[in-house]
């Protein structure tokens, strides 16, 4: 995949000035906190526990399938944190982009700090790392997704989350990947356990899908996390930036959030830096980032996220129970 | 509502699909909708269902057998399958994803989406991909990148000047990677690779505006592809470069430098040419008022809405679309948050065109 061609200096300066006006003029006339519409559906892959498909303009199309496998705990008595983290495996693959596995999806979503040397050492790279990170960090008060994966004494579910980007020439936004994973997780159901919890024997499950157990209870919290890309240009903060806006931006963050209660308040699960362009204006005009601006970026995300997560959740449930 | 989530088009149910298969069976492959005398046999109910469903029939994919009936001749977008040992007739196979079109006994496939095929004389907007010693490689959304020779641009210091080695050394001062330019297709070589030229003051580097892309084929060929539009809301005049290749540049209108401003009286002709030519390659935008920027963005949105509604773009359509957008704007709608807005604008514009 060739790297995207840089914008020309007049283009950058035009965008930079337009976007740093008050109020800013985005090229598609969106307001600063407006997201682009997306097409979404879930639980359509027949052999997966949960699946989703998201299409976004510019960012392309993405399919996520989640499969669960019964696995014996590696250590009989106490599973260590490192071992427990292996219960979830995320892989991001670009269609036609060659081999999957370690190092795949490096740089997808343009998130810096992921997919570097440390990412590769863990056996996976790029987008997969921050997707998993958000998933594991999600939930306060000792709640963890890993606890939901425990089946019985000595047995747990191993979750495979496979993300496939269908449009290799597009510029996948972190929003595309995280909404797809969010929806897939929300639509994931695991078979109900019929054998007793406290026995070491091989667990037995009911084969009736009507009584299967959702991975994330639809009415309880936290909900699956979502990552929102946000960029700042001048003093303005933009959610869901387009490729041109990312190229113009001075600073970009990917804020991972999870809904923590029914009122719509959100927990910040993680913040990562996002690779942005060289910024408009001349070399000397660049201001650098001040604390106020960073704070504004994160609060904008927190304010908007609840609405986004709720809308996504509603769409998922509507599609899950349409039959 | 900060985000809008659209449910996808519904799948056809299994029964409906079965129904279609029964119709097709005697064709030995993809539905051709033909009876034996070659007429199109369209079943009213099935046709309407196809339009709604995602698996619209009539669309073939690469490798799909279109027909094994020997009465058909293969046209563009198809090939003959390899001959079978038992002497059976070869079948026509699609090599594109698209719709079947028939001219008498000739079967061809019209692609759903295609890249721009350059033709001599086309006005194109391009982006520099690479700088070489005596030429540039330009992305014009065609299968091959185009070439722009150093000898086919306007060199500073007189329009018609022989290029020198100094120019070769300074090649990056004219165009460097990422720069946008408007040019004309001068020649085509045997592979269909285009060679561009900018030897007119109409062509050259693009500044003062916003670049966007649409599908190639959505721009109708017109007499002139550079439109100047009088915008309202204090936007002033805006130039629109509608590249035939689907690359579009919308910029603030600037008076061509050679026509001269106030200074033209005090400066001799040769001096003027020199200044003008150097300014052609400047990378600095003029001052553009926020009003103009808003109108440029509005025109961009109109173009996107038209393309989304599958309406080909020409001068008339663009003007009508812009008018419609302004009327809707007066009623106080917000383009960014209302996804139906684009559709309303297009409908209004189409209604206007019908009224004449």
TrEMBL record, chain A:
Keywords of this entry: Cytoplasm, Exosome
GO cellular component, one term: cytoplasmic exosome (RNase complex)
Domain of life: Eukaryota
Subcellular localization(s) per the UniProt record: Cytoplasm; Nucleus, Nucleolus
Alphabetized GO MF terms: mRNA 3'-UTR AU-rich region binding
Biological process according to GO: exonucleolytic trimming to generate mature 3'-end of 5.8S rRNA from tricistronic rRNA transcript (SSU-rRNA, 5.8S rRNA, LSU-rRNA); nuclear mRNA surveillance; nuclear polyadenylation-dependent rRNA catabolic process; rRNA catabolic process; TRAMP-dependent tRNA surveillance pathway; U1 snRNA 3'-end processing; U4 snRNA 3'-end processing; U5 snRNA 3'-end processing
Chief site of localization: cytoplasm
InterPro entries tied to this protein: Exosome_comp_Rrp42_subfam, PNPase/RNase_PH_dom_sf, Ribosomal_Su5_D2-typ_SF
Family: Belongs to the RNase PH family.
Record's protein name: Ribosomal RNA-processing protein 42
Lineage: Eukaryota, Fungi, Dikarya, Ascomycota, Pezizomycotina
UniProtKB/TrEMBL annotation, chain B:
GO molecular function, one term: RNA binding
Positions of the S1 motif domain: 119-199
Subcellular location(s) per record: Nucleus
Alphabetical UniProt keywords: Exosome, Nucleus, RNA-binding, rRNA processing
GO biological process: CUT catabolic process; exonucleolytic trimming to generate mature 3'-end of 5.8S rRNA from tricistronic rRNA transcript (SSU-rRNA, 5.8S rRNA, LSU-rRNA); nuclear mRNA surveillance; nuclear polyadenylation-dependent rRNA catabolic process; poly(A)-dependent snoRNA 3'-end processing; TRAMP-dependent tRNA surveillance pathway; U4 snRNA 3'-end processing
Database matches in CDD domains: KH-I_Rrp4_eukar, S1_Rrp4
GO terms under cellular component: cytoplasmic exosome (RNase complex); nuclear exosome (RNase complex)
Gene3D superfamilies: 2.40.50.100, Nucleic acid-binding proteins
Superkingdom, taxonomy of origin: Eukaryota
InterPro entries associated with the record: Exosome_cplx_N_dom (IPR025721), Exosome_RNA_bind1/RRP40/RRP4 (IPR026699), KH_dom_type_1 (IPR004088), KH_dom_type_1_sf (IPR036612), NA-bd_OB-fold (IPR012340), S1_domain (IPR003029), S1_RRP4 (IPR048565)
Predominant place of localization: nucleus
PANTHER family: EXOSOME COMPLEX COMPONENT RRP4 (PTHR21321:SF4), PNAS-3 RELATED (PTHR21321)
Family: Belongs to the RRP4 family.
Protein name (Swiss-Prot/TrEMBL): Exosome non-catalytic core subunit rrp4
Organism from which the protein derives: Orbilia ellipsospora
